[in-house]
Amino acid sequence: MDVSYILDELNPIQREAVTDDSLHSLILAGAGSGKTKVITHKVAWLSSVKGVNPMSLLTVTFTNKAAREMRGRIENILEENLNQMWCGTFHGIFHKMLKIHWKEANLLKDFSVIDSEDQLRVLKRVIQAMNLDLETWQPRDTQWFINKQKDEGKRKAILNMNATFVEEKMVDIMEEYQKTCDREGLVDFAEILIRAYELLTKNNDLLKHYQDRFRHILVDEFQDTNEIQYLLLKKLAGKNGSMTVVGDDDQSIYSWRGAKSTNLKRFAKDFSQVKTIKLEQNYRSSKNILACANSVIRNNPDRLGKELWSQKEEGEQVKVYRAFNERDEANFIVGIIKRWMEEGGSLSDSAIIYRSNAQSRILEDAILNSELPYRIYGGVRFYERMEIKNALAYAKLAINQNNDSQFERVINVPTRGIGTKTMDQIREKSKKENLSLWESAEQLAQDKDTKVAKNIKAFFEIISQLQELDFNKDLDKFFEKAISLSGLKDFHGKEPGEKGRSRVDNLDELISATSEYFSLGEDNDDDRSLLELFLDQASLDAGENQATENEDAIQMMTLHSSKGLEFPLVFIAGCEEGLFPHRRSAEDPKQLAEERRLCYVGMTRAMERLYLTHAETRNVYGIENFSPVSRFIKEIPEELVYQIRVASETEVEEKGFEPRIVGGTEHNVGGFSLGDRVTHKSFGEGVILNCEGDGSNARVEVNFDSGGTKWLVLSFANLEKV
């Protein structure tokens, strides 16, 4: 049988990785180096050349999409159906094992897997059954604690002698929760893996069966494995099994989910006869982009070490744009994309990548103003995010306390002991007596001294305090108060890892958004308050220009979401100290190293053109903050980048610099330019900081001497140059 076709598409190092006969292989696969191709061709090689039955192969990856793609590629190479081959995610594979051996695993035959939301509901029941206060022992906190123990392979947290009362009680809740799950036949995602590990540990015959069956184990994205996943693989491989792991320590960016990049080094230490092969030829990016990415990642300590290279052309220099502020940055990016389109490029080939979800708000504004379609990959638009909708709900209730949908949304968010039973009573009374939910709750709580009644009254008091605020000025102060009184920041911040941090950042960004919100001017006849105008605009923005899955549209995403993707044109926005690297990571060497890996991942998404942008000032909580350029940009040699910036008025006059207006960036509209001194009949004199839009949408940002910074629509503002 001629099997040369299996190797025909591979470069020499890829061929070595595929044909290597070592007992164990560690394939360090750099970004864009063809790791999926190697792992699929390795399966084909073992099957066609080495005569290994495909049923004796276990292929593991991290997402269902990747597993389907991998199986499809293998079947195409071998030209046969491989439905019986075990190829899937960790959870998929070991769920299958538990279903086969439910009795040995001490599970009910028809056990059910519960998702994160179902797990929360079970925990809530358990905590209430233990007569514990839900506000003190919040289900999300205990969920994070329980899953963390299981991911580390622990049935019970190992507490030291100085353990706190909270830690001890968490262990008690974990035990009661597990008893409930076992009794009801429920299995959460973390339980799948630890239960499978216990199954194999306690049943030697079963372990030997699977060790004999899976003679070859192949694992993709090995740098993302956590403790229990590593232990499962080690258990299955045993002393005689062969294992091939493919990974990249430079792309390990999920430590907050329990991933251990050190598992790559651990593998080389724990297993004998490990051969390390480095895939360093990149097929995605130009030489200049790779040179910049290499120069950044070299600054990380304790790397296994590799250097990406390419046979592609040098390509364009990586461009760095220093913006005046975040709006100038967003307008610049949109301007470059417009020029990209004029050159024949498609919107879907362009990606805007950012460190924090909160950054998308300004970028979305600029895209909406340009009437371009966009799609947020792996996420939702700013004003559709749960934490933002919760904050807006408090504001809407302050305007109209009889808004039933908003009442239902936040009456028990954050958790305040107003459960399903109470809400059913409120709804029933509301329907029976034709009352709003607010009026119904008010009557139910009236003259009562129960705990639920007190909680309802406490919620009413929050709304009452918000109603006392001025709806026509200082919207940032209004939302700062709403977020503070409601406790939303603490509530959402307790979500584990990156998700909780992102939600807090988004709430802070909402305050910044309201601080710069402008009305259409005093000449309009709209009698709505400034707060109502803002809420209406937020609702409209939430429904505009979000592209469908297959529509040609700008792609927007966080750095974490960008992993595994590639685009001809890439922007990494917000390359500033405190934002990227994130302020919470800058002082911790391990977290800083992960931030640098995030930068490396983002840069290596770019195929042809890469822009790194940063702003001199950025609005944070309504205050303009100076933002030093990110250390990651400073780590790139000057000769590898092209600096783009618009010279200031002072530099033009004193140093003779020529302003470089590039990519269609709008630095003047309606006869007004950056730096112009203007006067307004209500706000007095000020200086124009930013300009955007055109025609009836043209507006300017003015820093007034006594009135602060405001955005004004030129068609209403009646500004005059001084």
Secondary-structure blueprint:
Elements: H1 5-8, H2 12-19, E1 24-29, H3 35-48, E2 57-61, H4 64-78, E3 86-89, H5 90-100, E4 112-114, H6 116-129, H7 139-151, H8 165-184, E5 186-188, H9 189-202, H10 204-213, E6 216-219, H11 227-237, E7 242-247, H12 263-270, E8 274-279, H13 287-297, E9 318-323, H14 326-342, E10 350-354, H15 360-369, E11 374-376, H16 386-399, H17 404-410, H18 420-433, H19 437-445, H20 451-467, H21 475-486, H22 488-493, H23 497-515, H24 530-542, E12 554-558, H25 559-562, E13 567-573, H26 589-603, E14 606-615, E15 617-620, E16 623-626, H27 631-634, E17 641-645, H28 649-655, E18 668-669, E19 672-673, E20 677-680, E21 684-692, E22 699-704, E23 708-713, H29 714-717, E24 720-721
Parallel strand pairs: 1-7, 1-8, 2-3, 2-6, 4-5, 6-7, 9-14, 9-17, 10-12, 10-13, 11-12, 13-14
Antiparallel strand pairs: 15-16, 18-19, 20-21, 20-24, 21-22, 22-23
Helix pairs in contact: 2-3, 3-4, 5-9, 6-7, 6-8, 7-9, 9-11, 13-26, 14-15, 16-17, 16-20, 16-21, 16-23, 18-19, 19-20, 20-21, 21-23
